[in-house]
Backbone:
């Protein structure tokens, strides 16, 4: 562990991220001071052993981590910079350019501020959703602005790495443009598609498979928080939505006139380009290698998943990824096991020999 991070660490905001940070730091032996505008959230985080309330300590923090909603991030950072003239202040807001510009307008001491954004979260917020391992294996973006004091990068990097994250360095504008594409636009698309289910007259959702669940999973996220995020990053999200709007319009027009020359080709090209885009998403260990899938039918009764994992282990084939779905109207689950393509046939044969049913 790097010695660039010293305590005490003050966490402002004890929602999902703040409490998770507190849990991780406390587990690592740091003194964590908790503060939240909601006395209930602060108390819950304390009872979860994420740290101690600020009322119970007078020690000056060496690092302040601001974990509050985007619309008040800059104000809280400015306040903490004034309260603790020796402390470094960082934050975890999912937008970086707006708070930085607001701090500049306020005339805040930017030498003691360095922004960050852990690319981790859950569909549910609040301290009760927090986990000490929330950040393990996830990117933590650090956004230097060029005026931070010596050692600031090392301290924030040490914080992220202690919590299990891999650090990435981007400037604030590049960060916001990146999350607009890979986080903010997907949230809107997911929410809009899920909203179509509200007027589902035929109860088609009852037939839903993994595809619909995959696309709409994040639609359950906190709408109030997302309005704030999108309000802060709207100028970078809107052009992506406009381009997507054009793509959808062109595909819709082609589907309305499938017998017209070029219509089927246009649809096929859009689908192929989507497959190419998926290949750019890093997989296991950051690689982009494609895996093969073996779908196993698993009875819905205790011990079956454990047995499946044991049988996969005995086959001496490495499990690359896994997801599970349920068959509508049947007491059986569909477990999709991802392995290297060259191992697919061997795994299928080994599982069938153990009595598993494989969906071909």
Residues:
């Amino acid at each position: 562990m790097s010695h660039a991070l010293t305590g005490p660490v003050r966490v402002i905001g004890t929602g999902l991220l703040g409490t998770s940070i507190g849990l991780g730091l406390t587990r690592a032996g740091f003194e964590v001071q908790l503060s939240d505008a909601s006395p209930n959230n602060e108390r819950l985080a304390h009872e979860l052993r994420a740290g101690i309330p600020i009322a119970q300590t007078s020690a000056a923090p060496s690092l302040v981590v601001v974990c509050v909603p985007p619309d008040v991030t800059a104000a809280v950072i400015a306040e903490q910079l004034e309260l603790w003239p020796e402390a470094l202040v960082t934050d975890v807001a999912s937008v970086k350019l707006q708070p930085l510009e607001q701090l500049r307008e306020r005339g805040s001491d930017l030498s003691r501020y360095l922004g960050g954004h852990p690319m981790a979260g859950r569909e549910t917020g609040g301290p009760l959703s927090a986990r000490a391992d929330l950040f393990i294996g996830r990117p933590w973006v650090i956004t230097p602005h060029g005026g931070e004091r010596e050692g600031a990068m090392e301290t924030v990097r040490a914080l992220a790495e202690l919590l299990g994250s891999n650090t990435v360095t981007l400037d604030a504008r590049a960060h916001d443009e990146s999350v607009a594409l890979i986080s903010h636009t997907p949230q809107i698309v997911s929410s809009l598609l899920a909203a179509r289910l509200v007027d589902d007259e035929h109860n088609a959702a009852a037939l839903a498979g993994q595809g619909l669940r995959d696309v709409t999973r994040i639609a359950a996220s906190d709408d109030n928080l997302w309005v704030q995020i999108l309000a802060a990053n709207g100028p970078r999200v809107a052009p992506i939505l406009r381009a997507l709007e054009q793509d959808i319009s062109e595909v819709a027009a082609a589907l309305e006139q499938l017998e017209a020359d070029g219509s089927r080709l246009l649809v096929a090209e859009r689908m192929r380009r989507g497959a190419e885009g998926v290949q750019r998403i890093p997989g296991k260990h950051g690689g982009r290698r494609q895996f093969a899938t073996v779908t196993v039918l698993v009875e819905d009764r205790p011990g079956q998943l454990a047995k499946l994992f044991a049988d996969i282990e005995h086959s001496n084939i490495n499990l690359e990824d896994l997801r599970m779905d349920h068959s509508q109207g049947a007491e059986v689950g569909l477990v999709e096991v991802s392995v290297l393509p060259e191992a697919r046939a061997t795994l299928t044969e080994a599982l069938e020999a153990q009595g598993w049913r494989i969906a071909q």
User: Anything to note?
Assistant: The chain has three domains: 9-170, 178-278, 285-359. The chain has a mean pLDDT of 91.
